[in-house]
């Protein structure tokens, strides 16, 4: 990623979309040097299907590195494996960032660690904006206790583009998740008071910029150590999943240096890099 010196007000309004809310525009202008390496232009949409879909479509048509799409509402928001991400208006933070992960000397770790770096960044950004410490459940969920606060979905753009769309959703108010969903929470539910959505947006983008700088400069241990510190469930938690040999279960044993989850199954270690994983208990 190539950093820019600042995000100008003209750049923020240069893409077709809805007018930026004044609080977000002011917050971006005040924090332009902190977010500039991942946020060159902002597209704000009052209502859209999916910010990730929008970013993927744009990536097919133009070099839009550093494009950030922010929506007030998504009608087709989704998480991993096609799961629905409930995205009603004025209740959550729905963001997609178009990035080109660096590959210093052909090292593939920046791309493989991007989702983990994003999880660390979201946790740090939420803590900076609202004072809430969230844990990370491998690979991409932010939790407060046993309740889900935020999720991340990274998707590769078309072949040859080199782009990754990093989407994230954060529950700001209780309206951000369906009624009766017990394993969900929101920033305001945890705080017991309203929170500034623009501040949460800025702090998560600023933290993402810092962690992408770590990736660009090969500071992988800084990301891995921060992730491990925020993920107690990555050790000694029982999980199960469907393998080619059938249903397996075991105890988590941390992550390796490429971000894969290690699971002790009997007297061997299984390395999990993707797919559906069920957390037991």
Would you write up a description of this structure?
Strand 8 (235-243) and strand 9 form a beta hairpin. With 281 residues, the chain is an alpha+beta fold. The model is unreliable at 1-15 (pLDDT under 50). The strands form 2 sheets. It has a 7-stranded mixed beta sheet with strand order 1-2-3-7-6-5-4, sandwiched between helices. The protein has a 5-stranded antiparallel beta sheet with strand order 11-10-9-8-12, with no helix packed on it. The chain contains 9 helices and 12 strands. It starts with 8 loop residues before the first helix and ends with a strand. The longest helix is centred in the last third of the chain and has 20 residues, at 197-216. It folds into 2 domains: 9-229, BirA Bifunctional Protein, domain 2, CATH 3.30.930; 232-279, SH3 type barrels. Helix 6 (114-130) packs antiparallel against helix 8 (197-216) and helix 6 (114-130) crosses helix 9.
């Amino acid at each position: 990623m190539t950093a820019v010196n600042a995000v100008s007000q003209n750049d923020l309004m240069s893409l077709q979309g809805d007018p930026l809310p004044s609080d977000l525009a002011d917050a971006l202008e005040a924090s332009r040097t902190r977010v500039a390496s991942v946020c060159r232009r902002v597209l704000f949409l009052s209502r859209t299907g999916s910010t990730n879909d929008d970013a993927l479509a744009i990536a097919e048509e133009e070099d839009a590195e550093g494009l950030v799409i922010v929506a007030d509402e998504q009608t087709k928001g989704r998480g991993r494996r096609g799961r629905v991400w409930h995205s009603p208006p004025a209740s959550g933070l729905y963001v997609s960032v178009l990035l080109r992960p660096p590959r210093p000397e052909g090292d593939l770790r920046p791309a493989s660690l991007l989702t983990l770096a994003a999880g660390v960044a979201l946790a740090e950004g939420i803590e900076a904006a609202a004072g809430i410490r969230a844990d990370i459940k491998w690979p991409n969920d932010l939790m407060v206790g046993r309740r889900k606060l935020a999720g991340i979905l990274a998707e590769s753009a078309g072949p040859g583009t080199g782009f990754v769309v990093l989407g994230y959703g954060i529950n700001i108010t209780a309206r951000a998740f369906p009624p009766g969903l017990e394993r969900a929470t929101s920033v305001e539910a945890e705080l017991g008071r309203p929170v500034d959505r623009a501040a949460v947006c800025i702090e998560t983008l600023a933290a993402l910029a810092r962690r992408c700088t770590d990736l660009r400069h090969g500071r992988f241990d800084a990301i891995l150590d921060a992730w491990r510190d925020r993920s107690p469930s990555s050790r000694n938690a029982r999980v199960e999943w469907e393998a080619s040999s059938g249903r397996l279960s075991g105890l988590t044993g941390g992550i390796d240096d490429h971000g894969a989850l290690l699971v002790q199954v009997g007297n061997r270690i299984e390395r999990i890099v993707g797919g559906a994983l069920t957390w037991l208990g």
